[in-house]
Amino acid sequence: MTGFPERLHERIARLDTRVCLGIDPRPELHPSTHPENHGGDPARVARAVVAYFRSILEATQDLIACAKLQSAFFEAMGIPGLIAMAQLIAYCRRLGVPTILDAKRGDIGSTARAYASAYLGEGVFGSDALTVNPLLGFDSLEPFIEAATTNSRGLFVLVKTSNPGSGDLQDLTLETGQSFYMELAKGLRSLAMRHIDESGFSPIGAVVGGTFPGALMKVRNLLPTSLLLVPGFGTQGADPSDVATAFLQDGLGAVVNSGRSLTYLTKDIDYTDLAWQATHEMRNALNATIEGRSQ
């Protein structure tokens, strides 16, 4: 199997899209999935959630580079939610849509290997890429890197997150004179350069929030062979100009995630039509900004 960066770039180039569709189930936000309309039965709610997002995926599949499933929202629905997550991962695979599981896992030794096996292996939660938390140290990433390289999957390591409070720790100045997030990016650069695939990219990518354009540009320059996953677009406030520097000159190298602003736009039955329209507009807006930079 070709590596994750090559598969993702092939899809980006073929469909001319950098949109990552965020799948963050919030059953109470639409009547078709609202617990009150399913007798409070978790299994029925989970099935409705699967139907809701399957219809959105079917409508937008030619407009998206990948889909990011946020595991927390599925876990909040209990066992039926985990079944729903597995079913949606399988449905994305059937459609040919690469999946990023946003689980932000991080641990050491056998526990990290178990996480890596669960999310970067061949099981029901196996995805094309996984978000991981590096705060236990670079050695804690090794089991994930091993699984990613062995199974042709990818990693997105948290570097500079999109939330307002990220600066509490990530912007701290260290003894080196660098901010914590830049020292982290520097360490990832070293790891990434050890694992370059035939496409010239590494399976070790980074998460950098579009809400911090300056940080995004710095990390992009420091990690030229890494994919960037850029959250914060839309509801959190980032716009196309904020995320433009995530992309390389050829328009590759990054995907921009948006969840609620693509998937929860109405309480009516035409939610798939509105999801298609919003995704189409986001794709075109990103492409226009990228093209403007290259001219």
What can be said about this structure in brief?
46% of the residues lie in helices and 15% in strands. It is of the alpha/beta class and 295 residues long.
Detailed description of the structure:
This protein is α/β, with parallel strands linked by helices. The chain is built from 12 helices and 8 strands. The chain has helices at 4-15, 42-60, 71-75, 78-95, 109-120, 142-151, 167-170, 180-193, 213-222, 240-243, 260-263, 271-294, and strands at 19-23, 66-70, 99-105, 129-132, 154-160, 202-208, 226-230, 254-258. An 8-stranded parallel β-barrel has the order 1-2-3-4-5-6-7-8, surrounded by 7 helices. Strand 4 (129-132), helix 6 and strand 5 form a beta-alpha-beta unit. Helix 2 packs parallel to helix 4 (78-95) and helix 2 crosses helix 12. The relative contact order is 0.15.
By secondary-structure content and strand pairing, the structural class works out as alpha/beta
Order of helices and strands: HEHEHHEHEHEHHEHEHEHH
Counting DSSP E segments of at least 2 residues, the number of strands comes to 8
Strand fraction: 15-25%
Instruction: Report the oligomer.
Output: single chain
Shape: globular
> What's the main sheet like?
8 strands, parallel, barrel
Rounded average pLDDT: 95
Rg (CA only)? 18 Å
Query: What's the end-to-end separation, in Å?
Result: 35 Å
Name the helicity range. Answer: 40-55%
Which segments are poorly predicted (pLDDT under 50) over 5 or more consecutive residues? none
Q: Strand order, main sheet: write it out.
A: 1-2-3-4-5-6-7-8
Quickly count the helices: 12
